[in-house]
Amino acid sequence: MKNKLYFSAISKRAEEKAFDAIVEEQKSIGYYALPDQDIGPILEYCSSIPETIETIAVIGIGGSSLGAKAVYEFIKPVKELSRKLYFFESTDPININELLSKCDMNKTHFLVISKSGSTVETFSIYKYIYSLQQDPSFYTFITDPGSPLEKYALEIEASVLYLPDNVGGRFSVLSTVGLVPLALCGIDIKDLLTGAQMIKERFFDRGYVYDMLLEKAVYYAENHAQYSINCIFAYSETLKYFCQWYVQLWGESLGKHQRNSAFHVGLTPIGLIGPEDQHSFLQLIMEGTRDKSVTFIKIEDFHDDTTIPDITLPHLEMLDTLNNLPFSKLINMQCDSVIEALLDQNNIPLDTITIQSVTESNIGSLIFYYELLTSLVGELIDVNTYDQPGVEAGKIILKSKLQEL
Amino acid sequence: MKNKLYFSAISKRAEEKAFDAIVEEQKSIGYYALPDQDIGPILEYCSSIPETIETIAVIGIGGSSLGAKAVYEFIKPVKELSRKLYFFESTDPININELLSKCDMNKTHFLVISKSGSTVETFSIYKYIYSLQQDPSFYTFITDPGSPLEKYALEIEASVLYLPDNVGGRFSVLSTVGLVPLALCGIDIKDLLTGAQMIKERFFDRGYVYDMLLEKAVYYAENHAQYSINCIFAYSETLKYFCQWYVQLWGESLGKHQRNSAFHVGLTPIGLIGPEDQHSFLQLIMEGTRDKSVTFIKIEDFHDDTTIPDITLPHLEMLDTLNNLPFSKLINMQCDSVIEALLDQNNIPLDTITIQSVTESNIGSLIFYYELLTSLVGELIDVNTYDQPGVEAGKIILKSKLQEL
């Protein structure tokens, strides 16, 4: 993974301070340790799921689903996977029934994931699915030790797996929450963690990625009032769900009251996919208000030689320059052209991330890079990166509405 | 369709001025007339496509695909459609091959849609597909009269359909561009236009929707420096691609240099889907920087009685309040709870749009409502709503890169 910045931050002191804070934070926040975990027990558990199971269905929402979805959808198009993976995330009945129509109930294993063990969406859907499949051997529950969900699972004699300590939902993709569904589908979770570990080591050893992460975090924090919107512009369809994962990670971590002030702060994440969004969002970046930074993500080698054939279309000879060009080269030329065009503009902070190819290791690196960046920016804008008090109010209102019924 | 605003604009004079400008603009901008068109020729053309065709594939990008996709994905989950519809929008080779694997080449009709007739993505993909299927009867081309693409299509004796005058890509869903693929799949395009027409009439007759549209547009324009981000929070999975269509419409229309100043202006669109994004983006809206307005879109009647069963789970008795509740009621209660929670906050401008049910007519109304709103805001922030000069620079750079090869 390469990262090139086309801007520079001013405060070296802020960089040092943020780094020190992260080194300290590492002792109490759980996600930093995930790349180094022993995955033996997870693999052993996964091998206990019978081969007759053809589909894995996650019942979970937000941090319980977005990470696994990002990795699965990244790898799926390039690797023959052993099982299909679906996500029940919505209480939209149309969606629930559409997903269920794809699941043979005797060949589907359900992973019910809820940290608190009382998420309304998750349990509404679980109750419905339970009414269709009452055999507990078709379920695994992933929750915090001691939660009511753990007690329930033990009572019905279903499998229970646990979240590690102090790992919040949106930072949990490299824990059981993400690793179990992914391993069950044949994703190489060892490689995934190796990729994450590489970034972790380089960062904490002040190696290659350290400078970029620090400089970028300080720049975003220093300029957060002007560049309040941070776009990822990824040039591959395979990164669509990675963008969704990023949106939760960034938005929910950084959109907060400051710890030491009454200010509302926050940076707004936007996930874009090129080339489609060249024909949608690019105009706004190019000519709209100067409130956006953009990170381009490119895949260097698609391992795909699909090529535009050497065909001349009468009256369309001007398109012959496309002939014999591999699509993988075209998409990267499109990306480079947009980058060049934006660099010609003033006041649009850009950087590029290049990942070598579509592999577990590379998405693992990208995930850990973004987790570190989020932690650094959170520190620098003085928020608690790891809580989400703002979502409680709506839950309390819903609860009282439900009780009134 | 109902629309309720929880904020009010100050300038009644601005409202009158914007309305007058739209009445004037209607004479030259083509999309306003689309609801009143005669769809006879389109239906006749569609009936000429043989019944052996099971799949329709659009080769097009941005305005050539997003509108049809929005309507198709809205209706698909609730209606038995006659054909499948796929969209080739990306030059990502992984994506192209994945889509092609779903298309039986002898049962697929391709709609090649390019207004200019020289879109790089569209023709790269077309050339590739043409190398697999060279029979022109499997293709229909939709373009501007006189374009090189028209000449090509006529030369190979394939069908050609035309875009109406002065209809830009992102405003073209109710023209041949959207109507042909939709009608070919069994979507009722007459109802779609009726829904649009209803909004059009009410607006120009200063009926029900007139006040909301004007007030909202003026509020967004008056406060564009503070509320520079406009979120749609739609409580149904079926509106996911409508949100993508909205992002192009809003971003590409409003992100501009002002006509009469050197200012960069623009409002940033974000599409969210509830309840999932309650577990992702909501925290940022609730507690982050006060730079966002939010429009909630609800579906009143899902015509679905899928109900949470009356099951008590040991140790999880607190979730019994969910029992016997239809999911359709739960999702709307979730929406209402989030609205209430946000109304308790200061400085978050909200409005709600309620559509009665998932029908062609209702999505037609919603589309035309957003087109009118875009035109009004564009007028009020002094931009040319209908051009996109900012995307040209990247295209020129790409062209010269291609020539250098």
UniProtKB/TrEMBL annotation, chains A, B:
Record-listed E.C. numbers: 5.3.1.9
Catalytic activity field: alpha-D-glucose 6-phosphate = beta-D-fructose 6-phosphate
CDD domains: SIS_PGI_1 (cd05015), SIS_PGI_2 (cd05016)
Subcellular location: Cytoplasm
Keywords: Cytoplasm, Gluconeogenesis, Glycolysis, Isomerase
GO molecular function annotation: glucose-6-phosphate isomerase activity
Active site: E252, H279, K395
Class of this enzyme: isomerase
Family matches, as Gene3D superfamilies: Glucose-6-phosphate isomerase like protein, domain 1 (3.40.50.10490)
Biological pathway: Carbohydrate degradation; glycolysis; D-glyceraldehyde 3-phosphate and glycerone phosphate from D-glucose: step 2/4; Carbohydrate biosynthesis; gluconeogenesis
Function: Catalyzes the reversible isomerization of glucose-6-phosphate to fructose-6-phosphate.
Family: Belongs to the GPI family.
UniProt protein name: Glucose-6-phosphate isomerase
Organism this protein belongs to: Sulfurovum xiamenensis
Taxonomic path: Bacteria, Pseudomonadati, Campylobacterota, Epsilonproteobacteria, Campylobacterales
